[in-house]
User: What shape does this take?
Amino acid sequence: MNYKYVTVAGSGVLGYQIAFQTAFHGFNVTVYDINDDVLDKAKARFKTLCENYKTTLNATKEQLDATYKNLSYTSDLKVAVKDADLMIEAVPENPKIKIDFYEKLGQVAPKKTIFATNSSTLIPSQFAHATGRPTQFLALHFANKIWKYNTAEIMGHPETDPKVFNDVVAFGKAIGMLTLPLHKEHHGYILNSLLVPLLRAASELLIKGIAEPEIIDKTWMKATGAPVGPFAILDTVGITTAYNIYKMSAEKTKDPNAIKAVEYLKEHFIDKNRLGVSTGEGFYKYPNPTYLEPDFLK
Ligand code: NAD
Assistant: This one.
């Protein structure tokens, strides 16, 4: 693997974390998003990330200054990928948006550029042909709070070149990830095959009026020793991404409970801009959610 230039497309909840982690490990990173206002918001959030790197990873001022120097920003896709060895896509979890993005990207990216999707639930073969370069395309899936929960699931599709797969595994290691190669395509990969059913079950308990979010989270935390419960996870993931995932599944299955969960999230969270940690409120209020209080489980 001799990647040097990496482009991250989409600077939302995950994109800005991927960009920062990659720049922190010495790669030259260009952050791309649809307009400069969105990019300015991402830049502002890098400051908070710095604090996390200091406290969790003991990052020094020199390392963080070097990270900033490795980052550049543009809302021009052609400029964003002009040197890219690797482009990591973190645009919304919506197949239409992703296909449209890959069709445009395929036309402007240099031949050498490898494309990787960070999609949480969609599989690479859904987009491989839209990229125009299926052998150079695969999934590289990170977890939220990448600096701390540093997993990278790598999943090819039947046409992915094995060298590209191995290079992306090596890149994952080079940016400090525990790399987790998958043998086959699978919606939800490993992490979300386990996590999404948990979050969905928690939402169903709430919507059916069985218990409120805090009680559901307390049950999960105390009984399994987990550090947070499903509603705290939903706030961290971001309610928009959860909403998109639930919606796709409800449209496919027509399951009445799934439809109710989508309507519930829309009415109580999406329409009220209560999108989780990123907007300061979701199921909990931030920056001091009750689940972090010492007495929460007493
Ligand atoms: P988000 O909504 O926070 O961010 C998406 C970003 O993409 C926004 O900044 C938006 O302006 C930008 N965008 C929209 N259309 C675009 C386009 N055409 N080109 C470039 N940028 C565009 O979403 P997110 O939570 O960061 O999720 C992004 C991807 O990462 C999704 O596929 C999601 O499944 C995946 N992911 C999310 C998490 C998580 O915890 N949130 C974890 C792992 C993977």
User: Anything to note?
Assistant: The longest strand covers residues 137-142. The chain has two domains: 5-182, 191-292.
